[in-house]
């Protein structure tokens, strides 16, 4: 009987039984979401402070801050952040305009060690000489 109690305590210590394993999994998932939530707070802070001062004159739909928030929440901090940066770089008087949604999936040639591949740096369909 004592051997069984010892085995149960060892399992609980390793997180195999009870809520110990679930709590550790929740902490890891929370830590993974932390960078994207931090970026989201910055985006929302911009949207409700600086954006209202500068004026809401985005050339695209959805607006750049909506695009950035959706890209970060859908694709994560690295890929979404690069996509948002590329979009902001396209949003200028000589850039494109119109409907430009966040891609549903990441580009096939993009990898974590080549983050510039996540962004669309020119409006699709623009001639090579422009943009």
Describe this structure in words.
It is a single chain. The chain is mainly alpha-helical. It is 56% helix and 3% strand. A two-stranded parallel ribbon has the order 1-2. The protein is flat. 15% of the residues are buried. The model is unreliable at 13-18 (pLDDT under 50).
List the helices and strands and how they pair.
Layout: H1 2-14, H2 20-48, H3 50-54, E1 60-61, H4 64-75, H5 77-90, E2 98-99
Parallel strand pairs: 1-2
Helix pairs in contact: 2-4, 4-5
Per DSSP E runs of 2 or more residues, the count of β-strands stands at 2
Shape: flat
Radius of gyration from CA coordinates: 22 Å
What low-confidence regions span 5 or more consecutive residues with pLDDT below 50?
13-18
Instruction: Describe the main β-sheet briefly.
Output: 2 strands, parallel
Percentage beta strand: under 5%
The percent range for helix content is 55-70%
Determine the structural class based on helices, strands and strand pairing. Answer: mainly alpha
Q: Helix and strand string, N-terminal first? A: HHHEHHE
- Helical segment count: 5
The spatial strand order of the largest sheet comes to 1-2
Measured distance between first and last alpha carbons:
76 Å
Could you tell me the mean pLDDT? 79
Summarize the structure.
By secondary structure, the protein is mainly α. Helix content is 56%, strand content 3%.
